[in-house]
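Researcher: Predict the fold of N-acetyltransferase domain-containing protein.
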Amino acid sequence: MTTLRPFEAADMFRFNNVNLDPLTETYTVSFYLQYLGRWPEYCHMALGPHGRPMGYVLGKSESFGNQPESWHGHVTAVTVAPEARRLGLATQLMDLLEYTSEHADRCYFVDLFVRASNKVAVDMYRKLGYSIYRQVIGYYSGEEDAFDMRKALPRDVHRRSIVPLPEPVYPSDLD
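Model: Structure tokens for N-acetyltransferase domain-containing protein follow.
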């Protein structure tokens, strides 16, 4: 049985089993605290039996300058412990973030960055309704490309937010 609840600061001292995956970005304590302080409604933890962390999602809402239709939810991190994969936890965590983006902040879309080489994650996001908006050359440490994937929310009636860009971009081109 898994329980979903808001991410708490103390969780940072208990989630090594989740973060030890080589494809999971591990951030500084101050980074996690910034998210918990500014966007707590976008941060959730999945707990397994005996309160063991099984996964989490960190996100935020933001826009590009004064462009109202750029208001979106952003998935900063979603990860599930190796022993808890293929149970639907990532889907549940993503659903929470998408719900918050749509209902609390009235966003137009949700976006995320994923390693272009991480076929398992790219396929999972596609199944969740995300599409590749653009490729970002050298996004990960200047060495590995990322896909910027997006999912339109109901407020984006014409789905303009997900029309793919024809050419790759560089991290310096990102808004």
